[in-house]
Predict the structure.
Amino acid sequence: MRAVSAASIASLLNRLPADTVTIEPDALSEGAHDRWTLDLLRLARGDLPDAPDAIASPSSTDEVATVLRWASEAGTPVVPRGGGSGVCGAARAGPGSIVLNLSRMNRVLDVDEVSRVVRVEAGIRGDALEAALGPHGLTVGHYPQSIELSTVGGWIAAASAGQASAGFGAIEDRLLGLTAVTAGGEVLRLRAVPRSAMGPDLRRLLVGSEGAFAVVTEATLACAMAPRELAWDAFGFGSFDVCLDGLRRVMQAEPHALVVRGYDQADATLAFGRMGHPGGPVAIFGFDATSAGVTERRAAAADALGEGAHALGSAYGEHWWAHRNDTVRTYHRVMGEERMLGSGVVVDTIEVAALWRDVPALYANVRTALLAGAEAVGCHLSHPYPSGASLYFTFLVRGADDRAVEDVYRTAWATAARACLAAGGTLSHHHGVGLLKAPFLDAELGATGASLLRRMKAAVDPAGILNPGKLGDERRGPR
Amino acid sequence: MRAVSAASIASLLNRLPADTVTIEPDALSEGAHDRWTLDLLRLARGDLPDAPDAIASPSSTDEVATVLRWASEAGTPVVPRGGGSGVCGAARAGPGSIVLNLSRMNRVLDVDEVSRVVRVEAGIRGDALEAALGPHGLTVGHYPQSIELSTVGGWIAAASAGQASAGFGAIEDRLLGLTAVTAGGEVLRLRAVPRSAMGPDLRRLLVGSEGAFAVVTEATLACAMAPRELAWDAFGFGSFDVCLDGLRRVMQAEPHALVVRGYDQADATLAFGRMGHPGGPVAIFGFDATSAGVTERRAAAADALGEGAHALGSAYGEHWWAHRNDTVRTYHRVMGEERMLGSGVVVDTIEVAALWRDVPALYANVRTALLAGAEAVGCHLSHPYPSGASLYFTFLVRGADDRAVEDVYRTAWATAARACLAAGGTLSHHHGVGLLKAPFLDAELGATGASLLRRMKAAVDPAGILNPGKLGDERRGPR
């Protein structure tokens, strides 16, 4: 792709406050990718495509509009970027484009204790948001594993769900209002209301839009009282199918747990081996310990599991809660360990979802598909609903070297994707699409669905400057 | 508008099974309007605009596609129609257009007791849907007052919410998958999954789309166990502000009631006068009587109300539940009564919503605005959330005669709409937009929001044949 000319970069610099735009090489390299494992592999082997030509870090919605107007006039692609913690490559940026880094837009603008809502700039990180709400006794209840890296804008763009989604829902259930900037630099302000029937909800158009439809700069999110204490229950099972069917009955009994998770044998060993778990599938439930009727609701959840479950006490859940983000906190160490496993090793995850009727086949078929090319396949259920659940697979693929493994990885993904779709599932529950899943959009949405997405993208971004080559525009993008 | 030619109608007839298309004058007249009070007034005074040229009543998604392909080729506007129970004029159809009546597509296609979901054709009426689920012990939990008239497709198109939305959410919370046909006759099939992050959710694009973006022909809806018994509590208050603030605290305590409603003095008298209510605002709560922790949760709700509330027992709620749909059941009688009030009387409703912080001003300001031109203004809160609530106003306007009242009505609406928007509210909570609210779309969504809606509409329906003159296309429509 043609590089952005020096004159054009100078024109951008002229329109923005000093220190808003950088062309410093290390920053550009860092801004070229997110945490998609394949890009990290390419980075490790030194052949990630070249970096973008500039990174703009605006401090306001107006400055974002300035950048996008400049980009529209110049026809320059813009890749919006939150925390850079995405795992599907949605934030990949290359030569000829600039990165729009939202991380300076990280303020809490208003805490409304009456309505229990918070208005923030989209670049605020999850942990900073929760820290700001703490003194008010509030929480957004949105706790993705990436909470110490990811931003509110990224949550919206990737259609994120948090670890307490059983209780607090996913990001769309918290999103009440927003400000966004279109590709043409127009500012969209959608008032914060609990619900509206004034046409199709444009807030929802931006959930899962991956920076390709507009750039979210502010959001108003619903909060709740932060639980003062959590109460944990855990159960063991003879098989994961028995665990899954028990979790279905639990969700359908609606005991209003905040956290509901289930682990197959492999993932249970990973999650609880250190605390002496003897093996076998495990489920944990976390409740707000002081909520009304919690004793009866915990009992109802245990009853719903039935005779196939044996109680394991509170320690499993407490252990998980204490260590739930360790793999992200120790990310660089883990990446190092992966490298230490030797050249040619890649670890990735695939989070799919289906109706309960399809969940057993989804588990069996995706696992079998992965095992055809991968090893160390583990699975847990982390986002359950009365109607179905998400299954989260972790797998390791190995090739002769860091180059050969790429084909093994792509084949494993394609095989797993086919198995998921054949079982009636969706290929993404909360990681978005990015470059990784874009090749499967047509298969999941059908020709008409994919066409509608592309036509909508073209309608809101006629010049195609917002994250081109990604969602709704993926046919001209990089792989 | 130019009438559809006889040759064109003949071409449509030739493509469809016998008895699928009617041009019978009484049917055409009935298909020309929904239950928008202004059209009913015009009907009463004999000057509703002329009827559409034909009504097609397809029996399958394929036949819907046939109709839309014919319409695309001929450039003929198509007005999709569910139960015709809308109250904003979204189903108004005139000369030069045809009506696409979905009422023959009324089958239950699948009841999945494992996932607790039901797949239906979009033309099924709410009462028929619930009757079909009864033997399975299931309910969709979506109970709009129009349930005996309205259809699943209409619920989706108008972004409906039911009377038990506190417990079951609104239609988007039940909608898991759908089949729809685009203006060009392409079939969109979105698999039923509990949630997906595969791009912006196209299911949500059709919620609130009023037949202007695509025609929904099938839907998969989440169900729940139908409560075997409801437990009712009621409370009285010295003022509606105290009631509203109490309901806020109740919703934020999350007692998981199925029904939460509050009535101001005027609406409480209308709702409970017959059972001897002495006057003053009232709130009622309905719980699933056998759900886990219900005793504690009922107590928590009462506690959250605080000292400003006095308990009124269970009879108020039981009375409401028994009579909740009477005004719809006796609709023709009521309309007759309205006529009996004399020429020049119109009764209408306006359902708005805002964050709790804005709810007191929303109530005061919209009520004051209405009272400037209307009489008998009553209000109830019928869809509460932890973050805010919907307020539902009923008002009566009076003019010198059936013609003069139209200006009084339009002025009352415009004044109330300005007051609602100034208070931070949305002009539609669950009745959609139609012809009634379309003039306020730009004011609520802003120029950018309204522009995005129009650009999206043009992208998915480039020929502008789907319900033209309505949502996203309202500038060329009738008033």
